[in-house]
């Protein structure tokens, strides 16, 4: 049996895990390694990529920076989340705001230290990334269009870190990046529709508030149609192995997404659409292995 103090500490651990969204960070770590092995460093032995200490430090620095970003975002969105996510907010409030800020500075410091072991350029990269996350959370996220654009860019920034490290400039990488960027942009806009009550209460100027729900749906329709462009090129003009099955599935899900989008009116409807996009993104991470299913056997 756990003592009362142990239960309290365990609850605080889960609270902090909820604040930093540990599950999302784990997916990013897996995505960075799979991207390195199968796309960015596909010409290197798997063991050299997986056990590369510099790559490990970049991945860990990214994880620390992202965790710190979630903390500062949670700090600024404290009142909004009480309206939009009351149940999650109850768990998040088990850790005080002062403790969250302390973790924020510690995590950013750890990220800078780890980056310094890679190179001075890595330190500059993460310093800019940390500042950009703070600026977004403090100011930019309240602005229509700019907030969505910056959020999507910040989400894919950890992949630019390893992209710069490997200096791989193949066209297929940019096409993959465009596809991911469009999906994340769609997810951010759906989140704005989902969080409409809290955003209005806190005077956020998001796209649904400024331009209305109908215009938001029109924009989502165009973004959805745009995702078919990189999918077409990836399937027909690049060697992506069996990953084309993932893109065919994505096409079907995005058509369903559009069908449901124009029938959505309530928060629960938008939450379902948000989860659908999240599923496509997470599935895409694990489907990277389909690019070369026999790679691990041949390159170890």
Tags for this entry?
Four Helix Bundle (Hemerythrin (Met), subunit A); 300 residues; Tetracycline Repressor, domain 2; 81% helix; mainly alpha
Question: How is this structure best described in words?
Answer:
The protein has 300 residues and is mostly helical. The protein has 2 domains: 10-169, Tetracycline Repressor, domain 2; 170-300, Four Helix Bundle (Hemerythrin (Met), subunit A), CATH 1.20.120. It is 81% helix and 0% strand. The chain contains 16 helices and no strands. The model has no long low-confidence stretch (mean pLDDT 89).
Structural class: mainly alpha
- Give the CATH topology of the largest domain: Tetracycline Repressor, domain 2
Distance between the termini: 45 Å
CATH class of the largest domain: Mainly Alpha
Count of the domains = 2
Mean pLDDT: 89
Please compute the radius of gyration using only Cα atoms: 20 Å
CATH architectural category of the largest domain:
Orthogonal Bundle
Helical residue percent?
A: over 70%
Report on the biggest sheet.
Answer: none
